[in-house]
Amino acid sequence: MRDGSEDLAGAPQDALRHLHRLTGPQRRAKRRGDALLLYGVSLIVAFWLVPYLVDAGRTAGTEADGGLWVNDRTAWLLEALPGVLPAALALALYGAARTALWRGPVRLPGEVVSWLLPTPVDRRRLLLPYWWAALARVAVATLLAGAAAGFLLRAMVPGGGAAWAPAVAAGAWGGLLTGLLAVAAGTLVERYEGAVARHGRWLFRTAAALVAVLGLAAAAGAGLLWSGPWGWAVAPLAAALGLGGAAWWPLAVLAGSAGTGWLLLVAHRAAGAIPAAALRTRTAAGSLLAASVLTGNLRQARAVVRDTGRPPARPPRLRLPFPRRPALLIPWRDATGLLRAPGRLVTAALWAALAVLLAHAGWPLAALIAGYPAAGALTEPARLDSDDTRRAGQLPYAPGTLALWHGALPVLLLAPALAAGGALLAVAAPALVGAALVSSYRGQVPPHVMIGVETPAGNTGPFQTALWYARGPLVTLALLAPVQGIPLWAALPWTLAVAAGTAGWVRRTVRYAIS
Amino acid sequence: MTGPEPALLTLREVGHAYGETPVLHSVSLDLSPGECVVLLGPNGCGKSTLLRLATGQLRPTTGEVLFAGRPVDENDPGTRARIATALDPTAYYPDLTVREHLMLIALAHGLGEAAERAVTDQLAEHRLTERADVLPRALSSGQTQAMLLAAALVRPHDLLVLDEPEQRLDARARASLGARLARRKRTAGTAILLATHDAALAAEPGLADRLVEFDDGAVTVRPRAGR
């Protein structure tokens, strides 16, 4: 029997070389695509950003151009910069770590994940090129963004006292540092996916609390240049702009560079050991997200971002007693679902509160408009049915009937909440819930709507798509608008008729969606 | 060949194609109450398609499918009250626990006071009692399959339609699945339409009355050996 270890010693390298040869045409095609994308982005930057940069350079430090670069707002920005910018960078780093839960800096094509990962190839040799590519992309983007920010901030300094080159260099360094830290953090999240899944809840909550504290401190006018790496990245820029609190900026450069360098070394080592499961998850999420965005299925896109990398589900603590009456069954189901997604209840309460405030302020139409998102938040259980109609496959209800049953609890919750804004607002609750159900069951946008037609003003596709998405609330609110602000006895029949009409519309929408 | 009683489910010269690709042609099959027909065939032969045509999830390109003498409509409440299915591995609510999912189905079908007992029995039968109060996300794929089977069996039904129910089940659950289905068929008079790759399940004593074998879109119906 062969001892495979000697014979296969060179196999992984041979496999990778063979793969490199086979994927040559695809890599060249991808490079052409990337070059085209870069060309497009460069054109956009050139058309939009360069004029601003030229104008900033020309009128720097003066109140020319109507005070575009030197005015009260820019003065406030410069004064608040030692607090606001570090808080913003801390938020960006938090966002990078959270994004790594479903995206990760290291993302492999689907075919590599499916076919190559299970083979005994050298994992480090396979993954590190992708890591370096991600690092390079982020480094270039954040360096350029930081340099542009430094340039624009220098233009806001009254009297033009600061030099250009130090401000641009400091901005570039700060941007680069932030970008590198973001990639390092994302790599560690991806590498230690298991630990993040087990402890991620308190980790991210702690991080979020820290970011919130930084934000509050910044709002209170505190300087945060020495609060952590997010502040060290800003210290040289603050010094270059002549702002206070940055006298020890060389220390910040030293600490930031050393810390980031060390973290990058750790991340580099970790990148080669990212588990296959983590890579598979992110590749699948990336594909699904791209498909969702291309087909206009924003709900699915949100679900991908929300559900990928979620910690294991705990047994729910809140359980409602089972109903004894059949009529209470679907409201019970919806109540259970809403209690398990308390964010929806909070969203509904906030929008309802806004609607009430607007009604009291004498803006009945605005109150009505604010009532719609409240209804939308409460019809989340209906969306679970519309996302996958097979979920209700064992229930002995026609789909249209089930959809209307999903409106019962939202009406029962919304009407009393809106009653604080007046009876007219309360009686609009059934119609608003109906509009929300139409939106819930609308399904995927039809291709012909997305494609649109060419007109002298451009393609109508985006406008048609937006109208298609919003048709439920648009039509319902347009029908309810004429009776706002008139006595209840006059408005009630029409409002109830609109509610009945939306109920029929819900049935029709469900029938169309499942056909 | 027809069963001894009037047919509950009738497929008459049924054909189906996905776009330009024909999958089934001229399939005729009757299923009577208390009968079990097992579909056998390689992957891609049309077993799942036939099951979905039988439940009304798909409309046939040619021919007709009748349930209790009327064209089958999966959205008709009467049909949904009488046909139980376990065809889709993701057909559950992600925000309800296993117990809540089964109770919702049992109560919706009018079990009333008996719902709790029925759910407890199904949880025990499918070895889900200790996982009854977790969300589906916390279940293994085998436990999810068990939950879907329990959901189909917890409610009253005249016809049970299963697509490879043995998939992802552990050996012990697989071994007992056939006996449980045979017992249900015997005691409740349930008609069963079952697609499987498991020869042991197809050969379970007291389960299959007839076997349907697929060959290039056409089917051959024969009684199970020994019947």
TrEMBL record, chain A:
Transmembrane segments: 36-54, 74-97, 130-152, 164-190, 202-226, 246-265, 348-375, 395-415, 422-441, 486-506
Keywords on record: Membrane, Transmembrane, Transmembrane helix
UniProt keyword Cell inner membrane, yes or no: no
Regions annotated as coiled coil: none
Protein name: ABC-2 type transport system permease protein
TrEMBL record, chain B:
Subcellular location: Cell membrane
Superkingdom of the source species: Bacteria
Pfam families for the chain: ABC_tran
InterPro entries registered for this protein in UniProt: AAA+_ATPase, ABC_transporter-like_ATP-bd, ABC_transporter_ATP-binding, ABC_transpr_CbiO/EcfA_su, P-loop_NTPase
SUPFAM superfamilies in the cross-refs: P-loop containing nucleoside triphosphate hydrolases
Domain ABC transporter: residue ranges: 9-227
One MF term in the entry's GO annotations: transmembrane transporter activity
Membrane-related topology note: Peripheral membrane protein
An example Gene Ontology CC term for this record: plasma membrane
Similarity comment: family membership: Belongs to the ABC transporter superfamily.
Protein name as it appears in the record: ABC-type multidrug transport system, ATPase component
Organism of derivation: Streptomyces harbinensis
